[in-house]
């Protein structure tokens, strides 16, 4: 209890410090948060309080071209450059010696250099303007006063994907982004994103929004678990290493990680998630192939993995109306848990040691099915000798060619049982 | 296997040099060592293994070839694996052929509504409508072997994955799809000793059918101006003749806040050629609610809680925390049938030298017990810390240390050193 209180105090302290930091960090007044993909967009420069200006007026009424004022754009190969006009650019048209005219553009006594947004990007205007018009990317900038009022002063990243699709141009994150440590989109940080990501992708893996950052490999890193064919004992254990680089996954602590989607201790605690049904494990893992090599052989850990429930005195109870004990109760609640260890391809499932029907007589073997199980169904056991029914029902008449009224067939077809 | 790798490299080299328009290649080489001592007698073991990853995309006009593969080899103390090769995918792709058809041929991962899995076969997607809003996908082929080799295939009629999906991607934020999937995988027959009808032991031979899953599904999602988001699923299992999964999710955003709720009903998903679906069992139901609030500076505060109901029992899980673009902290708790746990996760990353050196670190701690029978809690602590040095954007050196301690191992320490090379080239 003392340790728990200390732990809670520690957590409270950390949360307190971080929440304080969150509230006291600079608050921006720019566009609403919902429109932004990355937090870094918050740093957009705003010169509307520095100078009086109207892009629309200059472009549409005076006939000025973008590069007439933004003269450095033509040769710019780096996003670090400030491409805003300087005095000499304005002086091409405006008479700088006429002091009465200063107030036309400048606020009282405010003569400062225009600032530019700092973006952590590799970007060459020189390369792009040879292929596109300025307003194809800076949509609506020719219709407003200040850039912040434009429909899209910086194009949404989906637009980049039109060319940066690994065919026309490269689409690796590091091709454009110089800082890979803060590229988690806002919506990816919502608390239930992992459960909901299929809907974000429009129930499709080909959504452009996803594909501009993630290749097919990315999905596969999590969704393709590799089956281990060894013993997975302490002397022969499975320690895969998948690099996230191959999948272009760049999220923080997962940048380099031992396993694909789970933390380094997950193999010891995954039973809680499996029992919780937090995720449908079978989405990625086939129980009969993936789970059994560990669970059947001790799971690579020195203490073995026999669940504590299996050591309880009432785990299996025998006799009519005993109910089968704890194991039957657990199986009713979570049959997937039983399956994860006992469903072994090409071997006899442990359950069949008891749950057999060797004589075709009702009531002489442990109860297996719920009341009325498959009653009246025309199932595959009528035609298929490989039906799973015949793993347990082994009396001589138990076969698709069996005779009505006898043994297994007699349960439904006129038998005395 | 080494012959297959050699042939694949020759193919990539030939195609990229003679036929392609662009080549995107990423190659990583990692040295990965670990040393650990078990908790019973302190036996210590150390090991060093090397991994290589290659991903490549080669494209020309509407055609391309993609692959991702991994090889591994022990350097010291061979632990039974030795050389290992995994071909995760390798497929030829045609995109927007005749303005309407996407095609993939080879090893690939399929996501098509209820259909999913790794496939060694073909997938075609036909797109039609003014905005390509109607899309029909059909796929089929062998199941990819679990170890990603080219062996262990069965006959096609007993070892395949096939299915289709008809999707509508409406311009008004509506997406809906109907899908079907059939999966068969052959299981080796086996012999076992059983009692015969006279209660004498006898040897029996069992050969089970390959029929695993036959599922149909309906998916939908609707997004209204990024304020209201809903999605749902309804999947049906033909073999067991029951609804195997029903799910409904809704989220509403107002200002910087977002509230969401979801309901899930699910039957255990068990292969038809496994006896486990015949045992008396019950379904699961889950209700989850979540709330998040994003501050103006981008920090997101969140909380969520979920209750999972089983037959006459339940489990609860909850999480509270916050995340920013490059760091986060959350506290995660579980209680009830599945087990009890209280833990936290903290992670962060930052640039130490602009555009050259970045660091990442995370700490995971959990005080837990699995199931509702264990009485004593155990502790598990995992720490990762690493550096990435990028002298050129095409080349990165990664170094990471990992430390885990838990009830099974006094310590388990790992060191990773990696070299990553990336190349994009316009060839013709």
Structural summary, described in words:
The complex is a heterodimer of chains A (417) and B (428). Chain A is mainly alpha-helical. Chain A has three domains: 39-176, no CATH class; 245-353, no CATH class; 355-417, no CATH class. Chain A has 17 helices and no strands. Chain A is elongated, with a radius of gyration of 34 Å. By secondary structure, chain B is mainly beta. Chain B has a domain at 98-234. Helices cover 4% and strands 69% of the residues of chain B. Chain B has one helix at 2-18; strands at 22-38, 44-60, 63-76, 84-97, 101-112, 115-128, 134-143, 159-169, 174-185, 190-195, 201-206, 211-224, 228-237, 242-254, 257-266, 284-294, 300-310, 313-323, 327-336, 339-353, 357-370, 378-392, 395-405, 409-426. In chain B, a hairpin with a 4-residue loop joins strand 13 and strand 14. The longest helix of chain B is centred in the N-terminal third of the chain and has 17 residues, at 2-18. The relative contact order of chain B is 0.10. The mean pLDDT of chain B is 87.
Set out the fold topology:
The complex is a heterodimer of chains A (417) and B (428).
Chain A: H1 2-24, H2 55-62, H3 66-69, H4 87-90, H5 102-105, H6 125-129, H7 134-137, H8 157-161, H9 173-176, H10 193-200, H11 208-211, H12 216-223, H13 266-276, H14 287-295, H15 326-333, H16 335-342, H17 407-410
Chain B: H1 2-18, E1 22-38, E2 44-60, E3 63-76, E4 84-97, E5 101-112, E6 115-128, E7 134-143, E8 159-169, E9 174-185, E10 190-195, E11 201-206, E12 211-224, E13 228-237, E14 242-254, E15 257-266, E16 284-294, E17 300-310, E18 313-323, E19 327-336, E20 339-353, E21 357-370, E22 378-392, E23 395-405, E24 409-426
Antiparallel strand pairs in B: 1-2, 1-24, 2-3, 3-4, 4-5, 5-6, 6-7, 7-8, 8-9, 9-12, 10-11, 12-13, 13-14, 14-15, 15-16, 16-17, 17-18, 18-19, 19-20, 20-21, 21-22, 22-23, 23-24
């Amino acid at each position: 209890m003392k340790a728990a209180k200390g732990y809670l105090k520690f957590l409270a302290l950390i949360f307190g410090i971080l929440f304080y930091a969150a509230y006291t960090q600079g608050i921006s007044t720019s566009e609403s948060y919902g429109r932004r993909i990355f937090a870094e967009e918050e740093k957009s420069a705003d010169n509307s309080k520095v100078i009086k200006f109207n892009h629309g007026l200059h472009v549409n009424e005076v006939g000025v071209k973008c590069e007439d004022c933004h003269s450095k754009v033509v040769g710019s190969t780096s996003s670090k450059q400030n491409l805003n006009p300087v005095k000499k650019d304005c002086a091409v048209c405006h008479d700088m010696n006429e002091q009465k005219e200063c107030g036309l553009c400048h606020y009282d006594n405010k003569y400062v250099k225009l600032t530019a947004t700092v973006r952590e990007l590799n970007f060459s205007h020189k390369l792009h303007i040879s292929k596109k018009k300025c307003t194809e990317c800076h949509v609506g900038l020719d219709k407003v006063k200040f850039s912040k009022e434009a429909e899209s002063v910086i194009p949404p990243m989906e637009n980049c994907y039109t060319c940066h699709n690994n065919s026309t141009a490269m689409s690796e994150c590091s091709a454009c982004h110089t800082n890979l440590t803060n590229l988690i989109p806002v919506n990816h940080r919502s608390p239930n994103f992992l459960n909901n990501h299929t809907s974000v992708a429009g129930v499709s893996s080909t959504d452009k929004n996803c594909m501009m950052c993630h290749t097919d490999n990315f999905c596969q890193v999590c969704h393709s678990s590799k089956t281990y064919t060894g013993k997975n004992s302490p002397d022969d254990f499975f320690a895969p290493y998948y690099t996230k680089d191959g999948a272009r996954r760049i999220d923080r602590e997962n940048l380099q990680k031992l396993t694909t989607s789970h933390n380094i201790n997950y193999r010891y605690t995954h039973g809680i998630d499996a029992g919780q049904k937090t995720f449908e494990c079978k989405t990625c893992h086939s129980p009969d192939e993936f789970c059994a090599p560990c669970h059947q052989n001790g799971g690579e850990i020195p203490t073995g993995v026999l669940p504590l429930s299996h050591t309880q005195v009432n785990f299996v109870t025998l006799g009519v109306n005993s109910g089968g004990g704890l194991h039957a109760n657990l199986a009713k609640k979570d049959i997937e848990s039983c399956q994860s260890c006992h469903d072994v391809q090409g071997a006899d499932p442990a359950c069949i040691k008891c749950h057999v029907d060797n004589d075709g007589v009702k009531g002489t073997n442990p109860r297996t099915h719920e009341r009325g199980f498959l009653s009246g169904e025309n199932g595959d056991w009528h035609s298929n000798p490989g039906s799973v029914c015949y793993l347990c029902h082994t009396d001589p008449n138990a076969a698709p060619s069996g005779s009505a009224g006898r043994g297994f067939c007699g349960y439904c077809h006129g038998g005395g049982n | 296997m080494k012959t297959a790798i050699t042939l694949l490299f020759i193919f990539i080299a030939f195609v990229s040099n003679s036929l392609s328009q662009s080549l995107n290649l990423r190659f990583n080489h990692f040295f990965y060592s670990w040393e650990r001592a078990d908790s019973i007698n302190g036996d210590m073991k150390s090991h060093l293994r090397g991994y290589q990853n290659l991903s490549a995309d080669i494209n020309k006009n509407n055609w391309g070839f993609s692959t991702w593969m991994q090889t591994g080899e022990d350097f010291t103390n061979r632990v039974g694996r030795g050389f290992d090769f995994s071909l995760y995918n390798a497929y030829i792709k045609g995109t927007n052929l005749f303005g309407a058809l996407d095609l993939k041929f080879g090893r690939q991962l399929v996501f098509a509504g209820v259909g999913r899995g790794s496939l060694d076969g073909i997938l075609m997607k036909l797109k039609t409508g003014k905005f390509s809003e109607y899309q029909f996908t059909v796929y089929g082929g062998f199941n990819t072997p679990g170890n990603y080799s080219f062996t262990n295939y069965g006959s096609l009629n007993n070892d395949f994955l096939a299915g289709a999906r008809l999707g509508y991607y409406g311009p008004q934020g509506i997406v809906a799809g109907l899908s079907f999937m059939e999966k068969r995988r052959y299981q080796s027959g086996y012999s076992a000793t059983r009692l015969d009808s006279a209660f004498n032991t006898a040897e029996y031979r069992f050969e089970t059918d390959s029929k695993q899953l036959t599922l149909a599904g309906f998916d939908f999602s609707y997004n209204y101006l990024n304020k209201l988001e809903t999605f749902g699923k309804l999947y049906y299992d033909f073999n067991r003749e029951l609804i195997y999964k029903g799910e409904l999710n809704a989220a509403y955003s107002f200002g910087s806040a977002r509230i969401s709720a979801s309901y899930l009903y699910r039957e255990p998903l068990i292969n038809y050629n496994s006896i486990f679906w015949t045992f008396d069992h019950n379904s699961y139901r889950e209700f989850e609610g979540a709330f998040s609030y994003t501050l103006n500076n981008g920090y997101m505060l969140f909380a969520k809680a979920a209750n999972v109901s089983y037959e006459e029992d339940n489990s609860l899980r909850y999480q509270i925390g916050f995340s920013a673009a490059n760091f986060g902290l959350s506290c995660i708790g579980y209680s009830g049938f599945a087990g009890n746990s209280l833990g936290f996760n903290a992670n962060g990353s930052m640039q130490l030298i602009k555009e050259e050196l970045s660091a990442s670190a995370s700490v995971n701690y959990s005080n837990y017990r699995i199931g509702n029978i264990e009485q004593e809690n155990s502790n598990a602590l995992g720490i990762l810390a690493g550096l990435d040095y990028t002298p050129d954007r095409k080349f990165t050196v990664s170094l990471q240390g990992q430390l885990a301690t838990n009830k099974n191992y006094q310590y388990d320490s790992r060191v990773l050193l990696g070299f990553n090379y990336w190349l994009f080239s316009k060839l013709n």
